[in-house]
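To close the chapter, one final illustration. This time we ask the reader to focus less on the individual chains and more on the assembly as a whole: which components sit near each other, and how the overall shape emerges from the parts.
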Amino acid sequence: DQQVKQNSPSLSVQEGRISILNCDYTNSMFDYFLWYKKYPAEGPTFLISISSIKDKNEDGRFTVFLNKSAKHLSLHIVPSQPGDSAVYFCAVPAGNMLTFGGGTRLMVKP
Amino acid sequence: NAGVTQTPKFRVLKTGQSMTLLCAQDMNHEYMYWYRQDPGMGLRLIHYSVGEGTTAKGEVPDGYNVSRLKKQNFLLGLESAAPSQTSVYFCASASGSWADTQYFGPGTRLTVL
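The assembled structure is written out below.
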């Protein structure tokens, strides 16, 4: 039973447009959320995080939104660039481990 | 500053063979982790360590063993490889708690025939 789900395995957007990646979670007690980005043949790298005391956190072109009542978070990339093409994972500290969603492959077309 | 390194990068095993994956970090991190990544399943924690000489089970520990004899190294062993262990294995390290940023190695692609 996955505690963190990314229901879209892939997403394709045009360069310059907005990319929206979604993540749903099951436990309302979760209070911290992270996004990692992974390029092929490389390990994941930390991208951005958000605490449950906030509903938005912004870092340059990347913004994460948290909707606690819906148990949903989303990552917005504006404007999208071809170099953003990667797999994006949402993750949450749960118990004694970091639990990852299944990932969404983003393809940004020039 | 190499960060987190993993050896080997690729390996092919036959069922029943054994091997050890080596992870090394040069950031003086206390926490180290081993994950496996399978298509559509994200990363799943195999074992982790919160300091030299300590290890603990993660979400999918069966068939694997680990050791943390030195702070900078975390070894993952497969005693008798099975095809179900075909996966990409990632090592990571972090300075502190689960919420701290984890730094990942480049991965080891293992195929068990």
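The first strand of chain A starts at residue 4 and ends at 5. The two ends of chain A are 38 Å apart (CA to CA). With these observations in hand, you are ready for the problems at the end of the chapter.
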